[in-house]
Every structure is written in structure tokens, then in C-alpha cells.
Specification:
The chain has 1 helix and 31 strands. It folds into 3 domains: 92 residues, Sandwich (Immunoglobulin-like); 97 residues, Immunoglobulin-like (Sandwich); 82 residues, no CATH class. The chain has 321 residues and is mainly beta.
């Protein structure tokens, strides 16, 4: 049994509660402190990071504190501002964000019902081993004020990030410099190392996001996973006329893949030019120059990747008066 000033706040709480409980009763109602027993059941002692551990208390206590053993929660450093967690209703759940071996300490305490005196404690300790094999990328994105552009996951190891040539900001068209933007790569592990094109990834570095990149994630335990990030630009017509007159492009402030072209003639013959790897489609059917269009119908302008035709950037095209 030990007494420690760590529990001074707990004793104070017990005193306050005891005073409330005894305000209308006499001191003869005092019940002496029971003998505490720090007995627990732990569901697992080998964990992955971010995997939950559950501790069930089966002993005797008026208050149970769990020191998880990681930073700021070490029992041995309780006199140096390290703290534990109060267990609620006999169940405590916790997960670790960093790998390592951690000393978990359960402190069970009891006290007299009258003014919370006669504090007694019992301690039980065990080790938890936490490993980090995480190499899974959760999100890839870039922020170009006022928008955040998220990459789409194409497969287990392939991501596609599409950017427009221009975006609306304060009702003005602003050119997007895709060749120089910061990149955000999100992963659950704080210990994993990320490399982009063989160099350590840095969220403050500017990258060319209109080209492809190789990404390697190395977990704390040494597991390696390789990814490809495809960077593409939403396609646009190089030139476009309807009925022999120029069609005017208007952009959406909310949908960066949407391009609306305003026409001024009843002749709906479409003529256009595009880059070599771009094609205009009606569903899955190609639409060559000189075809007829329908106002209000949505078409697709598709840019296919030069080395992987399954990777493509699709812009939605609508013609309106």
C-alpha cells in the first residue's frame, strides 16, 4: 500500500462529496476504507499503433487511475506533472500513436466515506508492446486558395490528382500554377517515413503537380510500400466555335471539372481543336469536329495519360445560350 500526493485532488473531491453526503447525517455513519485490490483484465498486450486496448477493472476501489506509460503519462514521473486517466464504470480504452514498449500501471484507491480520509492504494503494472507497420496513405491533396483539391484513388497503389488551368476566386479567373504547389500526404502513423521521387517528402516543399511522382512509404518496422501519383490537368478546347461563332467559356466556382460554353447562334454545328491526347465524347462515342450538339446536354472532354490510358482527366462540357 502507498500514499502519494498524486491523489490529493482525488482526496479533495472525495472530501467534497463526503461533506455533501454527511450534511444531514452524523459522523457515526462513517464507513472505513475498504482494502483496495488492483485487479484487471486486459484484452491484448501486443498492439498496432491506433489499435484500441481495453482494460476491465475487476478489483476493489473507489477510484481507479490508469497510467498508459507513453509521453506525459508515466507512473514513474508522476511527481513531474505526468498524469493518469480516471477509469469510468470499470472500463478504460486507449490507443497509442507511437510504437514502443510501455509500462501500464493501474492504481486502485479507497478512502473512508467520512471526509474521504484514510486513503489507501494498490498498484498493478504490466507491459504493452506497440508496433507500427502502417504504410497506408489515407489522403493526398493540395490547397490552392480558395480550393482544396483531393487526389482520387485509382487502385491499391495508384492515385490521380487533377487540377484546372484556371479557377474562380472573388469572381475573377485566376491561373493555377500546377507546376509549383505544396502537397499534403496524410497517413495515420506519426513514425512512417515518406519519400517522393527518392527524396524525403516535405509538406512545405513546392512540387510540380502536373507530372507523375513516385511515393514510397517506409513504416517504423521497415515495411515498404510504393505508390504512383499521377498529376493531370483538366482538358479544355484549344479553339471552339458553334455555328461558326466563338463559344465563350464560363467556369464554376464549385466544380472545377465543369466547363459551360455560351453560344449565340441557332446553328449548333460544333468545330473545335484539342491537344493530341484529348478527345470529346458523347457517353462513350467520339464526337469529331463538325458534329451537331444539343444545348444543355453534358459531354465529356477526356485527357488520357500518355503511358497509361486507364488514367484520365475528364472535364464535363455543357453548351448553353
Amino acid at each position: 500500500m502507498t500514499t502519494n500526493r498524486l491523489f490529493s485532488n482525488l482526496v479533495g473531491m472525495a472530501i467534497a462529496l463526503s461533506m455533501l453526503n454527511t450534511a444531514t447525517s452524523c459522523s457515526d455513519d462513517n464507513e472505513p476504507a475498504r482494502t483496495p485490490r488492483a485487479e484487471i483484465i486486459v484484452d491484448k498486450q501486443s498492439l498496432e499503433i491506433n489499435e484500441s486496448m481495453q482494460i476491465h477493472f475487476t478489483g476493489v476501489a473507489d477510484q481507479v487511475i490508469i497510467f498508459t506509460g507513453d509521453k506525459d503519462h508515466e507512473y514513474e514521473l508522476r511527481d513531474q506533472s505526468n498524469t493518469g486517466f480516471a477509469m469510468n464504470k470499470g472500463l478504460f480504452t486507449y490507443s497509442y500513436r507511437t510504437p514502443g514498449t510501455f509500462r501500464v500501471v493501474c492504481v486502485a484507491s479507497t478512502y473512508d466515506t467520512y471526509l474521504g480520509g484514510n486513503l489507501q492504494t494498490d498498484v498493478y503494472a504490466f507491459d504493452v508492446t506497440v508496433t507500427d507497420n502502417i504504410t497506408e496513405i489515407d489522403d493526398i491533396s493540395t490547397t490552392i486558395t480558395p480550393n482544396v483539391y483531393y487526389a482520387n484513388r485509382l487502385s491499391e497503389n495508384d492515385w490521380l490528382l487533377c487540377l484546372p488551368t484556371k479557377q474562380l476566386y472573388n469572381n475573377r479567373e485566376m491561373t493555377v500554377n500546377a507546376a509549383r504547389q505544396r502537397l499534403s500526404i496524410t497517413i495515420e502513423s506519426d513514425s512512417a517515413k515518406i519519400y517522393l521521387d527518392g527524396e524525403p517528402y516535405n509538406s512545405r516543399t513546392y512540387y510540380a503537380l502536373n507530372i507523375d511522382h513516385s511515393i514510397r512509404v517506409v513504416s517504423s518496422s521497415g515495411t515498404i510500400r510504393d505508390y504512383t501519383l499521377y498529376g493531370m490537368i483538366y482538358p479544355e478546347f484549344s479553339t471552339v466555335t458553334v455555328g461558326g461563332k466563338d463559344a465563350t467559356l464560363t467556369r464554376s466556382a464549385f466544380y472545377q471539372d465543369l466547363q459551360t460554353y455560351l453560344v449565340t447562334t441557332d446553328d449548333l454545328t460544333l468545330d473545335y481543336t484539342v491537344e493530341d491526347n484529348v478527345q470529346l465524347l458523347d457517353g462513350s462515342q467520339p464526337m469529331p469536329p463538325g458534329c451537331q450538339i444539343q444545348l444543355g446536354k453534358e459531354y465529356t472532354l477526356r485527357r488520357s495519360h500518355s503511358s497509361n490510358p486507364q488514367v484520365r482527366a475528364d472535364a464535363r462540357i455543357i453548351f448553353q445560350r
